[in-house]
Amino acid sequence: MSYLDKIIQSNTFQPDKYIPFIIGTETLGFPLKTFANKLDRWQEVFQRNENSLHLNPDLSSPEQRTSACQPVMQALYNEGIIDTWVGEPYAVIHQYGEKPRMLIERAAVTYMGLRGFGIHINGLVQKKDGIHIWIARRTKDKPFWPGMLDQMVAGGQPAGISRMQNVIKESAEEANIPEALAKQAKRVSTIHYRGETHRGMNVDTLFNYDLWLPEEFIPENTDGEVDEFILMPIEEMAYLTAETEQFKDNCNLVNIDLLLRLGLINSSHPDYGEISRMLYQEPA
């Protein structure tokens, strides 16, 4: 594997397996055709033809759409078709900051192929022998990517709170970072990717932050989702990213972004141009 392989891995899907999901005249998602078939029972909400899946046009307001879709997704979860439930509302939008066309349960976002948003925070420490980074190991009982390596703090971006409010919330929950310290996190980059999973298509935007931490600070997990935190030299993180499968897929993208910005991946790398082009491509 290589850095470029990891980017390609997160942006690979088979287009013919998906169908456009349309609200009004806007295509807002790409659910698997097999999942779209499950929605045929709710003709009053979803209307499907051979080429596309439409939300009933009589549902003309965000509130009506949200109210109509919520029990459908709940029923599919109760039947085990949607495999988890988070209880966080996500905005159905093209770009961050737009007025939501509706809200939907976070766990349904990938099934519907909707654009999701998240924050990832690099916990960085400047030591005498160079830059180190705090890495989280996900618990072995996590339903997805159990036991894999992750950023120090990462989480989805729910509707109704700002990115910085989410940074503060996730920092407290995942690493016991005090609010005053979490507020020092700087948004440094944005990554878009679109790739296939067993649930459907991940169409995601990641807002990446750097947080420089004092040497004496040691993160502690408070929500039970992390087994341990590991402080490693940035060069070790670079090796694990390029040469192993230990990091969660989208965390590789955040790692590569950090390595580019720190100059550890530079113009001397044979794939530098393609890495930069693919990592920072605009959303489809």
Architecture overview:
By secondary structure, this protein is an alpha+beta fold. α1 (3-9) crosses α7 (249-262), α1 (3-9) runs parallel beside α8 and α6 (234-243) crosses α7 (249-262). It has two domains: 3-12 and 116-279, Nucleoside Triphosphate Pyrophosphohydrolase (Alpha-Beta Complex), CATH 3.90.79; 19-112, Transcription Regulator spoIIAA. The two termini are 25 Å apart. Strands 7, 8, 9, 10, 11, 12 and 13 form a seven-stranded mixed β-sheet that branches. Strands 2-1-4-3 form a four-stranded mixed β-sheet, with no helix packed on it. The longest helix is centred in the N-terminal third of the chain and has 17 residues, at 62-78. It is globular. The protein contains eight helices and 13 strands.
Task: Write out key terms for the chains shown.
284 residues, alpha+beta, Nucleoside Triphosphate Pyrophosphohydrolase, 4-stranded mixed sheet, 2 domains, Transcription Regulator spoIIAA
Secondary structure topology:
Elements: H1 3-9, E1 21-23, E2 26-29, H2 33-38, E3 46-48, E4 53-55, H3 62-78, E5 89-91, E6 103-105, E7 115-127, E8 130-138, E9 149-151, E10 153-156, H4 163-175, H5 179-182, E11 186-196, E12 201-212, E13 226-233, H6 234-243, H7 249-262, H8 272-279
Parallel strand pairs: 1-4, 7-12
Antiparallel strand pairs: 1-2, 3-4, 5-6, 7-8, 7-10, 8-9, 8-13, 11-12
CATH class group of the largest domain: Alpha Beta
Largest sheet descriptor: 7 strands, mixed
How widely separated are the two ends? 25 Å
Return the CATH architecture of the largest domain.
Alpha-Beta Complex
CATH topology of the largest domain, what is it called? Answer: Nucleoside Triphosphate Pyrophosphohydrolase
Structural class: alpha+beta
Q: Stretches where pLDDT falls below 50 for ≥5 residues?
A: none
Count of all domains: 2
Rg for CA atoms:
20 Å
Query: Any idea what the CATH superfamily of the largest domain is called?
Result: Nucleoside Triphosphate Pyrophosphohydrolase
Mean pLDDT: 96
